Amino acid sequence: MELLPLIALLSLINTILPDFIRNYLKVSRFWKTSRAHTRQWQSEIDDAREELENVRNAEHAGEYAKAIKILRAERKLADAEAKLKSARSMDAFKEMGIDTVAYYVSKVLLALILIVVSILNRSTPVIVIDLGISLAPFTGLLSFPTGVYNAVSVPVWAFSCNVTFRLIYDMIMKRDA
């Protein structure tokens, strides 16, 4: 495969895939976390609500005793609800962490592939432009590792593809938002 489309394709994938993984794929859905503690807290809340209803409906020796038992049952219910809320927020935090790690792993992996391709082909020009077209004052910069006059090197082509695709992708996403 030629370098020009290979690097362009890698740059395009490097632009689109990490955001697709973070925004649409949601890797955390495939990573099943244990929901047992959530079910346990939910059953504890149900028990506490039932106990609160029993205390409210029961006959007591005095108003003070009834008020104390109701307060204890309400406190037990509030504690169970707080624990459930904490468990759910911890699950959401774990899912967010998994999605963030997947995003950065995909970005680093694709960047490493692009770097390896650039290093292996650093002396090969991607495009050699006709001598009739002058690239002065950027001739040396554009063809840096190759040494070929009026050429575009692999690192420069990879950088320009990455910047261009990122700019286009950002413009498309801002327009859709």
Automatic annotation (TrEMBL):
What GO biological process term is on the record, naming one?
A: tail-anchored membrane protein insertion into ER membrane
Q: Which spans are transmembrane here?
A: 101-120, 127-145
Is Plastid found in the keyword set?
A: no
Molecular function (GO) terms listed?
Answer: protein-membrane adaptor activity
Q: Where in the cell is it found?
A: Endoplasmic reticulum membrane
User: Where is coiled-coil annotated?
Assistant: 38-90
**What name appears for this protein in its UniProt entry?**
Guided entry of tail-anchored proteins factor 1
Species in which this protein is naturally found? Drosophila madeirensis
* Origin organism lineage: Eukaryota, Metazoa, Ecdysozoa, Arthropoda, Hexapoda
